[in-house]
Amino acid sequence: MKLKTLVFTLFLVSTASFGQKVKYSKEEIKKMEQYLFNEGFNAPSVKKTSTVILKDGTTHKGFCSKTDTKKGQIFEVTLKDSISKKPSVFVADNISEMYLYPNEAEKVGKVFKYMGNIRNYQTKKLKNSTTKDRIHFVNQTVSLKNKKDDKEFLMQVINPEFDDIISVYHDPRAKETGGFSVMGSPQLGGGVTKSYYVKKGDKVMWLHKDDFEDNYDFLFGDNAEFMKKYPKNSVEWDYFSFLVYQYTEMSQS
User: Fold this and answer.
1) Residues whose CB falls within 8 Å of the CB of residue 212, separated by 6 or more in sequence, listed in order
2) Angle (deg, nearest 10), helices 240-252 and 212-220
């Protein structure tokens, strides 16, 4: 009887230890709240040369005069030759990757949006909204919102500097958490993107903040050191970009 009591006590202690939350300092939380993904763009510049690389290895360049989309994702691209002005249409099924420049009007809109939320000043870099760099798109077969039939789309990679294990793609239809403002002042709180498309291994899924905890083990569970330092009961969806970055760093060290 005493042995059973001892075993039960040890079980309770180990369970409590396993489920114990990690308490982070204000400095650590501030660091985790930093948004490390690139800004997502939905409209290409028609004045700068875009590049399309087909699956057969051929490269095509021209002004991107049109993109056809489904639920915001690009499935067809039209490039116009800079000299002949002749348009060429490419479907995502035949494209391996693509490089576009963001539309200037959209960048201006993103600057206004950035300035309209006080939280952005602490968590995001304004230069990501005004970038002059090319935007990288890759072909991915995905089920839109995990509900539609699998189809090939050109999806923008928003973590190109740390996508070795987990690739994160812009969700053009993503909503943001709400905040509040007083008498037209900049918004307080909110502004956190609620969903992305995420790839790990051969699996590409639509990841919504409400499903973050359910998918936490799939995303990060194969790194025991990471899971000990950032258990799912101690982190928030707001930290997602930091967690992907940190997981990648710790998995490669």
Assistant:
1) 237, 240
2) 10
How many whole angstroms separate alpha carbon 9 and alpha carbon 196?
43
Residue labelled with tokens 């006590």: 9
Count how many Cα atoms sit within 13 Å of the Cα of residue 104 in the half-sphere of its side chain. Answer: 3
DSSP three-state, residue 204: strand
What is residue 190's DSSP assignment?
-
Paired residues of 180 in beta bridges: 188
60-83 tens-digit pLDDT: 999 999 999 999 999 999 999 888
In the 8-state DSSP scheme, what is residue 43?
Answer: S
**Range 59-62, long-range pairs (CB < 8 A, 24+ positions):** 60/88, 60/90, 62/88
> Who's near 14: CB < 8 A, 6+ residues apart?
none
Distance separating alpha carbons of residues 98 and 87, to the nearest angstrom = 17
Six-digit token pair at 217?
Answer: 């083990």
Give tens-digit pLDDT for 177-192: 976 655 556 666 678 9
Structure-token pair, residue 54: 């087909």
Using CB atoms within 10 A of its CB, is residue 52 exposed (0-12), middle (13-18) or buried (19+)? buried
The reply to whether the predicted model has a pTM over 0.85 is yes
**Whole-number Cα distances in Å, 127 to 33, 79, 121:** 18, 27, 12
Question: How far apart are alpha carbons 41 and 207 in whole angstroms?
Answer: 19
- Identify the H or E element spanning 12: helix 2-19
